């Protein structure tokens, strides 16, 4: 392992980028690689394996096991590269002009690499307050992997003092983000030849009524603007995102699916908004469909859910984050993170702070600046010093 900190970060990031951990694939080889790296320092993590046996989170404690500490949290999965125009292999790290290119460099293997690169300093520091590494899976598909890990953490005798979730914020201290609730509505109509269309039940047309109602409510949410100026979009948002239906031009469609989501400012607002839409559809649309034919109707299923984050600006974890980052400001973001689940599942106060810009996340030729990674390493270094004071 290279001795200088920047070289350690580069080497570890290159290793992590080399694992294709798109969310529909296993992350076990990457987890095994991290475990092998930690073992060289005499550190053993705790694996939390999913029900398929193909995915795992890793919980690591460096320092005393019987004292409350601080969590550095990152996810291992990345979004797909299919259909994107990359100028090089997305799973091979490329450095140009101070920028490190590769899938996941910003979101968020860069942060994980920094944390791992700082392990030697953590071990040498003789920490009085422990530092935990929380490495999860399937964040991109709904913050899936962190949930069972946090349920295990919540059972422990000693709960962490706080968590830093390293999503890309350009090392700004983020105290809040919107929650999200996603729902799929499946409309079941009655197929008939289009020449006798009145005898059928058109699933797409009833779905269109739902879409229109979603749009109407989205406009109302936008009009009810929040006084919380920390959000760049200062209101909850609601939209239809995916629609599938129909088989042929001359067939009355008997099925149509509609995916819609709400991103709410309030802790539970996202679910409250979508629940109200479901209730409206069951009261207004489904009875009309069943009146045409008893087998018709609508099925609803939850496809994604996480609460909003709203950490008090004067909370101890926020004050500490500002001190470690060397800044006095804080902000909120529209995109979701695992931070709200640390708070809601394990009662761990959390902030979001990490290297890189969200503008680079999920893009072709994704990159993170080396300067951002070094800034993040400075943050972790100052956390280590803080944790030696007890």
From TrEMBL:
Pfam families named in the record: M20_dimer, Peptidase_M20
GO cellular component: cytoplasm
Entry keyword annotation includes ATP-binding: no
TM segment ranges: none
Locations listed in the record: Cytoplasm
BP GO annotations: L-arginine biosynthetic process
SUPFAM superfamilies recorded: Bacterial exopeptidase dimerisation domain, Zn-dependent exopeptidases
Entry superkingdom: Bacteria
InterPro entries: AcOrn-deacetyl, ArgE/DapE_CS, Bact_exopeptidase_dim_dom, Peptidase_M20, Peptidase_M20_dimer, Peptidase_M20A
Keywords of the record: Amino-acid biosynthesis, Arginine biosynthesis, Cobalt, Cytoplasm, Hydrolase, Metal-binding, Zinc
GO MF, any single term: metal ion binding
Domain Peptidase M20 dimerisation span(s) in chain numbering: 175-287
Cofactor(s) recorded in Swiss-Prot or TrEMBL: Zn(2+)
Protein family membership: Belongs to the peptidase M20A family. ArgE subfamily.
Protein name per Swiss-Prot or TrEMBL: Acetylornithine deacetylase
Name of encoding gene: argE
């Amino acid at each position: 392992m290279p001795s200088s900190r920047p070289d350690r970060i580069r080497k570890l990031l290159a290793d992590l980028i080399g694992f294709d951990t798109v969310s529909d694939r296993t992350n076990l080889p990457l987890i095994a690689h991290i475990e092998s790296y930690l073992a060289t320092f005499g550190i053993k993590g705790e694996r939390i394996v999913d029900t398929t046996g193909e995915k795992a989170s890793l919980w690591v404690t460096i320092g005393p096991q019987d004292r409350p500490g601080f969590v550095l949290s990152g996810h291992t999965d990345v979004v797909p590269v299919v259909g994107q125009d990359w100028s090089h292999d997305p799973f091979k790290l490329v450095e140009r002009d101070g920028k490190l290119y590769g899938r996941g460099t910003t979101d968020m293997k860069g942060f994980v690499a920094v944390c791992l690169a700082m392990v030697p300093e953590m071990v040498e520091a003789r920490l009085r307050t422990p530092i935990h590494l929380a490495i999860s899976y399937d964040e991109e598909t709904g913050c899936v992997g962190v949930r069972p890990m946090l349920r295990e953490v919540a059972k422990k005798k000693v709960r962490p003092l706080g968590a830093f979730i390293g999503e890309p914020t350009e090392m700004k201290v983020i105290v809040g983000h919107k929650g999200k609730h996603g729902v799929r509505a499946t409309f079941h109509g009655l197929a008939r030849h289009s020449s006798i269309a009145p005898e059928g039940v058109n699933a797409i047309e009833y779905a269109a009524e739902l879409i229109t109602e979603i749009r109407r409510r989205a406009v109302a949410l936008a009009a009810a603007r929040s006084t919380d100026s920390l959000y760049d979009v200062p209101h909850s948002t609601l939209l239809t995102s995916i629609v599938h239906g129909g088989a042929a031009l001359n067939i009355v469609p008997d099925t149509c699916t509609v995916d819609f989501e709400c991103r709410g400012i309030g802790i539970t607002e996202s679910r409250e908004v979508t629940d109200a839409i479901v209730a409206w559809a069951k009261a207004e649309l489904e009875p009309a469909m069943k009146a045409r034919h008893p087998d018709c109707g609508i099925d609803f299923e939850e496809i994604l859910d996480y609460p909003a984050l709203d950490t008090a600006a004067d909370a101890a974890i926020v004050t500490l984050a500002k001190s470690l980052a060397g800044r006095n400001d804080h902000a909120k973001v529209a995109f979701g993170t695992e931070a709200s689940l640390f708070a809601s599942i394990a009662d761990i106060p959390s902030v979001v702070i990490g290297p890189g810009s969200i503008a680079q996340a999920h893009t072709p030729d994704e990159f993170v600046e080396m300067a951002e990674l070094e800034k993040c390493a400075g943050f972790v270094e100052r956390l280590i010093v803080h944790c030696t004071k007890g």
